[in-house]
Amino acid sequence: MKAKSEALRDAATGRKSAESARPKAGRKRLPHAERKAQILKTATEFFADNGLTAQTRRLADECGISQRLLYRFFPTKEDLLDEVYRQEILGVFKPTWFAELQDRSRPAEKRIILFYEDYLKVTLTRKWLRLFMYASLSEARMAPDYISAIVTHLMEVIVREVAEEKAVTLPDDRTALHEMGWTLHGAISHYAIRRHLYKASNILPEQKVIAMHVRTFMVGFESMVQDYADHLD
Amino acid sequence: MKAKSEALRDAATGRKSAESARPKAGRKRLPHAERKAQILKTATEFFADNGLTAQTRRLADECGISQRLLYRFFPTKEDLLDEVYRQEILGVFKPTWFAELQDRSRPAEKRIILFYEDYLKVTLTRKWLRLFMYASLSEARMAPDYISAIVTHLMEVIVREVAEEKAVTLPDDRTALHEMGWTLHGAISHYAIRRHLYKASNILPEQKVIAMHVRTFMVGFESMVQDYADHLD
DNA sequence: TCTATAAGTCGTCAACTGACGACATATGTT
DNA sequence: AACATATGTCGTCAGTTGACGACTTATAGA
């Protein structure tokens, strides 16, 4: 490697100009499970920052261990990536969300706001979002089919709950239901994308944004359903 | 490279198992400008598919030329990437959008729908979106500040136009105005992201989705503004 | 204290990668 | 036909990678 494209390369490899990494002098010899957990934790941040193509040597530096040791825990880099993905991306979804969204002792708007406050907390972090994007972009079968299915289901639940509360009759087309839900979800997700991927500054606080988007969704709900019905070809 | 992580590697490098590429036997010796244009066109697709870390050799294959020839046109890979970004990502924004959005001889809803139909056509394609995402994720200064500024401006125009038509008084906080616009823009952008990045199937046609989201935005506009005012701390 | 074993490192291999000097050839002009 | 020049290729260099065999050493149980 000559010099011209150092910046690009460094970004992709995870190199830091001045070499940070912990003082590898610290304590050593962790038990297997503990070391593995530490590697996974570090790897999550590392790959989220530097992309899935970042190098194992840099990761090892970041962990304060030799590159060889990584291969005592994971047969290949891909296996490591798989485990990071499974734990950090898939692992954060909470089955309780479905139940809570359908708890009709509370008004739907309240339920949806509470859901999104929790949802944003675990999934729409810098770490999660960047990792998810890198995974989505890669051709790997790690692809977000599973997540897509979960979110689609969440959308359907949200739309049905609002319709129930507002006594609105929904169309039979479930795809349309999902798209209606995505109206809200897309807006909120995009807030997170803007914040963590586009590094936007001058951004409103999370709670306010959620409240605003949910309100808009609730108020426009009837006419959205009506509009769909009107546009049937 | 041994064998285990072939799939991952191949995805990142742009290799195709059975080696596609055009029959490089075809006609040769294009004039400078023509060849450069061909390279840029191919490079756009190539990097959109395989990421910014894909290799120059594979790109050369894809172009049907030798790797060396690439360096007759671009001093470094980074320069090539810069030019792709400038042409394909930045180059598609149309200054006329601002004027058209402010043409009050038409109803605001109509203007916004027309705008988004055009906007989706040029920016929210697979090629554009993936490239934009890769660029956003990379630490490179190629970062989307410029785009962010343009879109933010578009948002402000849209919000002001709707407010004018509906005779609604807007808050002074411009950040709030932008966030209101992002309500709509995020929802529509996210539709494209879902479609091209998450490879979602079962998706409603573009026009319908735009109409639905714009309608929801228009109907909920007053209460969104009101809600913002209510939540001032 | 001795030792088995788990925890960890060194050094290296082969393929990959950006970059480029040296060389080859098509094409139009005279 | 001869030539100048732009178009294009070959081969190679040096630094980078994922992967792994061989080796070292801390630590707990006998």
Automatic annotation (TrEMBL), chains A, B:
Task: Kindly indicate which segments of the sequence are annotated as binding DNA.
Answer: 55-74
**Which InterPro entries does the record match to this protein?**
Homeodomain-like_sf, HTH-type_TetR-like_transc_reg, HTH_TetR
DNA-binding is among the record's keywords = yes
Checking PROSITE patterns in the record gives:
HTH_TETR_2
Q: Which domain of life is it from?
A: Bacteria
Q: Gene3D superfamilies given for it?
A: Tetracycline Repressor, domain 2
* Annotated HTH tetR-type domain residues: 33-92
Positions with biased composition (Basic and acidic residues): 1-22
Q: Which GO terms describe its molecular function?
A: DNA-binding transcription factor activity; transcription cis-regulatory region binding
Where do the segments described as Disordered lie? 1-33
Q: Supply the alphabetized keyword list.
A: DNA-binding
Report the PANTHER family cross-referenced here.
BLR6905 PROTEIN (PTHR30055:SF181), HTH-TYPE TRANSCRIPTIONAL REGULATOR RUTR (PTHR30055)
Q: Give the protein name, as stated in the record.
A: TetR/AcrR family transcriptional regulator
Q: Which organism is it from?
A: Thetidibacter halocola
